[in-house]
Design brief:
Layout lengths: L2 H9 L3 H28 L5 H10 L5 E5 L1 H16 L4 E3 L2 H4 L12 E5 L6 H13 L3 E5 L5 H5 L2 E4 L15 H20 L4 H7 L4 H7 L2 H4 L8 E2 L5 H11 L3 E5 L5 E6 H8 L10 H4 L1 E2 L3 E2 L5 H11 L3 E5 L5 E6 H6 L4
Parallel strand pairs: 1-2, 1-3, 3-4, 4-5, 6-7, 10-11
Antiparallel strand pairs: 7-8, 8-9, 11-12
Length: 340
């Protein structure tokens, strides 16, 4: 849709229609907020959430989440949230389950069935088989007296006073409540499992957190011939050629055992030019910066970033446990790797 078309559509609403849009939007949010608040308040009425989390925590297989229609969409999201927070989980469509996919479910799993009415025929067709396998069943319904609720080992009440839909028909408040309760289960589980940032990163290697917590210096450092280095006896002019050729804005100065004893950077060169005009008789030993900052290959790349920021430097040398030079790191390497 073009910008012109959007403006035309906006202008087609008169003042009364615009007020009604805003009123319905606010009412929808208010109804759904009240539904979540009501769910929050009735959690104290029984220990169903505690029992559900205990069943999920004890699961040695996977958590299988299932539902039809809008409940199915919510079930997919709950399964995804569980899986990304340390609880192996998957979604199974109840219709497909009746035609073979139920073979994915084992007695070691936990089955979460979601149906606001608690009478979904597609779910009710497969749940007797789930029960016969001995798979624990957690039901999320809005009808505590429904067949699904009665069949379950743990029932979670997702009832709402009314839907946000003006006709009280379209699943709106009920799906919001179900999603919120699914999040509550996932958060309680990740806490019980001692799930940490590092664990989350392993499930999200492509995300910013994954890059920050899973990327090591060895993954982004330059190594081999790409590392600029000279000996203390090297003339400054030759050292400057090494700086230029390797394109890191610096060179390491190493001893006979390949251990860094100094570093010379573009910044050092600029400061040197301010006081010296003739470089012909100067050796790198005379102008190098002693005790360069170093990191180890196995350190996290974010540790290198922290050191660079603290000391306001753009390059670092990478040394092994014996203190020998094995690589070099530029701030641009970390930027390209999206660590920063």
């Amino acid at each position: 849709m073009s910008v012109t078309d959007e403006k035309t559509m906006q202008n087609s609403f008169d003042e009364n229609q615009s007020r009604r849009v805003m009123a319905l939007a606010r009412e929808t949010l208010a109804i759904e907020a009240d539904a979540v608040k009501a769910l929050h308040d009735r959690l104290d009425a029984d220990d169903s959430v505690v029992r559900a989390v205990a069943v999920l925590y004890a699961c040695t297989g996977r958590v299988v989440v299932s539902g039809m229609g809008k409940s199915g969409h919510i079930a997919r999201k709950i399964a995804a949230t569980l899986a990304s927070t340390g609880t192996p989980a998957m979604f199974v469509h109840p219709g497909e389950a009746a035609h073979g996919d139920l073979g994915m479910v084992t007695a070691q799993d936990v089955f979460i069935a979601i149906s606001n009415s608690g009478e979904s025929s597609e779910l009710m067709d497969i749940l007797p088989v789930v029960k016969r396998m001995g798979t624990p069943l957690i039901a999320m319904t809005g009808k505590p007296q429904s067949r699904l609720a009665q069949l379950s080992d743990v029932h979670l009440d997702i009832s709402v006073a009314k839907e946000a839909c003006p006709m009280n028909l379209a699943p709106t408040a009920s799906t919001t409540v179900t999603l919120a309760l699914g999040d509550a289960l996932a958060v309680a589980l990740l806490d019980a499992r001692g799930f940490r940032e590092e664990d989350f990163a392993r499930s999200h290697p492509g995300g910013a957190l994954g890059r920050r917590l899973l990327t090591h210096v060895r993954d982004v450092m330059r190594s081999g011939e790409a590392v600029p280095s000279v000996t203390p006896e090297t003339p400054l002019a030759r050292a400057l050629l090494e700086v230029s050729q390797k394109g890191m804005g610096m060179t390491a100065v190493v001893d006979g055992d390949n251990r860094p004893i100094g570093v010379f950077t573009d910044g050092d060169l600029r400061r040197l030019i301010e006081r010296v005009q003739d470089f012909s008789n100067i050796g790198i030993r005379d102008v190098m910066h002693l005790d360069p900052r170093t990191v180890h290959p196995e350190q996290l790349a974010v540790d290198a970033v922290a050191i660079m920021e603290e000391f306001r430097i753009n390059q670092m040398l990478v040394v092994d446990l014996d203190g020998k030079l094995v690589g070099a790191l530029h701030i641009h390497d970390l930027t390209r790797a999206k660590v920063i």
